[in-house]
Amino acid sequence: MTPTEFALFKYQHADAAIRSPARRWFTGISFGLALLLIATGFIVFPVSLFALLVPVLAWTTASRQLLLGPRYLLCGQTIVYYANVKRITLSRGTGTLRVQSHNGKSFLLERDKFPTNARKADKIQKNKAAKFDKVADKIIEKVRSASTNVDVIGAG
User: In degrees, to the nearest 5, what angle opens at C-alpha 54 toward C-alphas 44 and 57?
Assistant: First the structure.
């Protein structure tokens, strides 16, 4: 069985960051080693703080992402299965895309939550709009291919 390929986009959602198993293992092992070095007295006080800083940084620097797969999207603790979507409402003016499922739950994609490295205000808005349009179009495309009876409001 081939592994599922996800398209990754940085997205500042409110849920906790998704940490890979490798990151969790590294954090646990480095924390254990730091405690072992401190308990044995092998390293002195200032260095012991640095040894504890490594696992803390590894844990807290995990980025928040939006993952688009072939059949579903993942955003923090939210999973949207494309075949269960009944309505998509796109508003490019306000920069929102609402995806509503048959069970009543909805996912809201917001333009302002896409990070950018630009410094000028006009470039920031332009970059966020471009990233939002790209992701919104991909979501609409994937939902349309997975479900034939979905209402798409606001998209061409």
Answer: 140
Query: What confidence tens digit (pLDDT) does each residue in 54-69 have?
Result: 888 887 777 778 888 8
Provide the β-strand partners of residue 67.
Answer: 8, 74
Q: Are 88 and 144 within one domain?
A: yes
Range with lowest mean pLDDT among 12-16, 32-36, 73-77: 12-16
Same-domain status, 90 and 128: yes
pTM of the model: 0.72
CA 31 to chain centre: 26
Q: Per-residue DSSP letters for 101-143?
A: ETTS-EEEEEGGGS-----SHHHHHHHHHHHHHHHHHHHHHHH
Mean pLDDT of 9-20: 74
* Enclosing domain of residue 88: 82-153
